[in-house]
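Standup notes
- DV: blocked on the single-chain target, sequence here:
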Amino acid sequence: MNSNFDDFVKQNVELLDQHIDELFDSDSTLNTDLKMMMKYSIDAGGKRVRPLVLLAILKAFGKTPNYDILTVAAALEAVHTYSLIHDDLPAMDNDDLRRGRPTSHKKFGEAEAILAGDALLTVAFQWISSTNLKDRIKSELVLSLASDAGASGMIAGQLLDIQGNQRHYSLAELKHLHHLKTGKMLLFPAEAALIMKPSKLQVAELVKDFMANFGLAFQIHDDIIDVTESTAILGKTAGKDVDLNKNTYVNLLGLSGAKEELNQVLQKCEQDLTSLGELQPEMDLMILEGFLTYLK
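- DV (later): unblocked, structure below
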């Protein structure tokens, strides 16, 4: 990773974490126990990839983080964290570890974990609605996040993932599953950035195409490290998808085939950035390029 990217990540993770703390601390209406359970999961670490990508896209357009931008980024992280809490539940993946710590249901109980997830999901829309952004922008952000996280996005993908326990998917079906389950919540940063900083159509389409490809690469990479990294490094149970014979790129294509697929998708990401640079040379794309190093 280049030093500019490292500095960007370090500075903005600190900004995000401080802002999330401020959002929680400023809400005197939150139940004390529920707040503690929500923060247990959202403060557990993680790379903050989704909100960081949002900030990186806005940086490429020349916008620096302010209170409202950070609030939207925090809302995105809240929705992502809720999805992890519910994904780990006994009825779903039944995992004991997340980010190196006991999962929410192991720490607090299954019912409490469900409620903590529900609270993080709904507080995200509360946070967006509380910003000083124009009403039209807030409305578009809420609509986009609800669509990407809900029945036409992540939740639909999660259902396909569960249904896949009963059958093996084709490569096209697997790509569709992960476009919904993983890709939609990585597409939202592009949509949100373009809502807050509109751009000409060709540029907007390339930014969204980059994030769609990045989302697919992110999932393939996740499938690969599930079988190549240890539980200690992953912070969650390694090899579980293979043990459960789930629909993954490794199970479908083999490890070498999954790596080849990842390389091809990363090449598409790089081509998107090259095209963006040619179309709008003033864009600072160095940080976005840095995100691809996560997956190599």
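- Follow-up: The chain has a mean pLDDT of 94.
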